[in-house]
Structures are given as C-alpha cells and as structure tokens.
Design brief:
The protein is α/β, with parallel strands linked by helices. It is built from 4 helices and 4 strands, in the order βααβαβαβ. It has helices spanning about 20-25, 25-40, 65-75, 90-105, and strands spanning about 10-15, 45-50, 80, 110. A 4-stranded parallel beta sheet has the order 2-1-3-4, sandwiched between helices. Helix 4 links the parallel strand 3 (about 80) and strand 4 (about 110).
C-alpha cells in the first residue's frame, strides 16, 4: 500500500459547461470529494486548480493544468487528485499527456472515486 501521509496534494477540478456545473458533477461536489479523499489519505491540500468558464477538457491550452504541472515540477505538489479520471481531460491523448507530464515531474495522479493503475 502506498503511503500518502503528509504528501502535499493539489486537486484538479473541472466543469466545461454551465449545464455540467448544474446537472453533472459540480465543482463543489468535486471539491468535497477530493478534499475528503485527501484528508482520509493523510495528504495535505496545497491548492485547488479550478477550470470553469467553458474551458474544454479537449483543449490543449489549459492555464490551470500548466500551473499544476509547474507546482509539481517545483516540488510544491506531489500528488494530484481528481474526482474522476475524465475530469483531467475528455480526450484520451490529452489525458495521457497530462498524466505523463505530472509523473515525469515526480508526481502521482490519483482519482478520489475510481481505482486505476
């Protein structure tokens, strides 16, 4: 079992449409789920990286993802928590690129609601 105790964590939260924010998994719900997972795992929340206002999970230019990766590279964040893996990106290639960038910088990507390896 992976020891996450004390690890600085960042939560990546995303909604891409107003409808999704109200009828899907809202930013509030994602935040509560990520914060609960971080707390139960013994990690310490450093920052929430919030994408809203129509930023698509298919977009390549995502300032909050870039800020998150920069914080992982700087050692400020060691674990990235998403509500579900598809909150990282809607396009598989982009998702894998984001995971690769985070892992290459020494970070972990964890889902608060799904098991994946």
């Amino acid at each position: 079992m992976l020891n996450l105790n004390g690890l600085p964590a960042g939560a990546l939260l995303r909604v891409s449409t107003a409808d999704q924010a109200h009828n899907g998994t809202s930013l509030r719900e994602q935040s509560e789920t990520a914060r609960g997972y971080i707390e139960r795992s013994g990690m310490v929340l450093v920052r929430e990286y919030v994408e809203e206002d129509g930023i698509s999970g298919r977009a390549e230019d995502r300032p909050d993802v870039d800020a998150l990766v920069a914080d992982v590279e700087a050692g400020l964040v060691k674990a990235v928590v998403v509500h579900r893996i598809d909150r990282g990106a809607r396009d598989l290639r982009l998702l894998l690129n984001i995971i690769h960038r985070i892992e290459s910088a020494g970070g972990l990507v964890l889902s608060a609601t799904q098991f994946y390896d």
